[in-house]
Automatic annotation (TrEMBL):
This is 2-C-methyl-D-erythritol 4-phosphate cytidylyltransferase. GO terms for biological process: isopentenyl diphosphate biosynthetic process, methylerythritol 4-phosphate pathway. Catalyzes the formation of 4-diphosphocytidyl-2-C-methyl-D-erythritol from CTP and 2-C-methyl-D-erythritol 4-phosphate (MEP). It is an enzyme of class 2 (transferase). GO terms for molecular function: 2-C-methyl-D-erythritol 4-phosphate cytidylyltransferase activity. It comes from Marinilabilia rubra. The record marks 152, 206 as: Positions MEP for the nucleophilic attack. Belongs to the IspD/TarI cytidylyltransferase family. IspD subfamily. NCBIfam families: ispD, PRK00155.2-3. SUPFAM superfamilies: Nucleotide-diphospho-sugar transferases. InterPro entries: IspD (IPR001228), IspD/TarI (IPR034683), IspD/TarI_cytidylyltransf_bact (IPR050088), Nucleotide-diphossugar_trans (IPR029044). It holds the Pfam family IspD. It comes from the Bacteria. Its EC number is 2.7.7.60.
């Protein structure tokens, strides 16, 4: 397999959490969310190259947390941009041209080794792989005051890591920014590449609300 890299994007400001501390720095268990996330990738492959993208004004706070918690796992700090698109593009400048590169949300600390492995293995053979889950709730399409039932079997929810051959991802990120780019797969798709879906894991939640933090804290205590 090609050399493995992951860009972990953590640009949150904590507004939806109601905290002054950005959500990626809040504790679950005894340590910040972001440390748990980075550890997941090292537990999959101890040789993986980790690029952590943060707003530059958060660098000192993160470095202080690393000292406090004696967090020694190697990672390269890269300054984020005004959008997620810009942040990923900044991170890509530090990725080798022949790497397999994953893009992962810093606040998804429960991705499983199996999900990570599926993404990298399929990206190696197909070029682009993203983890998804079947929709378990009924869904409806809303237009104005009207709504319609839609068959949930035709839809999937999308997780990270989204993994690509770095040459594909770098080519895609040469496209100009478009507000319709909601994730990396949408950028790659706009550049004309196909996306292969793989199975995600239900525990791979994105921590974005106070309720998510309660759930995450309970989950980390069960590990």
């Amino acid at each position: 397999m090609s050399a493995l890299s992951v860009i972990i994007v953590a640009g949150g400001r904590g507004l939806r959490m109601g905290h002054e501390v950005p959500k990626q720095f809040l504790n679950i268990g005894r340590r910040p969310v972001l440390m748990h996330t980075i550890e997941k990738f090292y537990s999959y492959d101890s040789a993986i190259s980790v690029v952590l993208v943060l707003p530059s004004d958060q660098f000192p706070y993160w470095k202080a947390l690393c000292r406090k918690h004696n967090f020694l796992l190697s990672h390269k700090l890269v300054e984020g941009g005004p959008t997620r698109y810009n942040s990923v593009k900044n991170g890509l400048a530090h990725i080798g041209d022949s790497d397999l590169v994953g893009i992962h949300d810093g606040v998804r600390p429960f991705v499983s080794n199996q999900t990570i492995e599926r993404c990298y293995l399929v990206a190696q053979s197909h070029g682009a792989a993203i983890p998804v889950l079947e929709v378990v709730e009924s869904i409806r399409k809303v237009e104005g005051d009207r709504s319609w039932m839609k068959p949930r079997s035709a839809y999937r929810t999308v997780q990270t890591p989204q993994v690509f051959k770095s040459s594909i991802l770098k080519n895609a990120y040469d496209l100009p920014f478009n507000p319709d780019f909601t994730d990396d797969a949408s950028v790659v798709e706009a550049a004309g590449y196909d996306i292969t879906l793989v199975e995600g894991n239900r525990e791979n939640i994105k921590i974005t609300s106070p309720f998510d933090l309660v759930v995450a804290d309970a989950m980390i205590r069960e590990e």
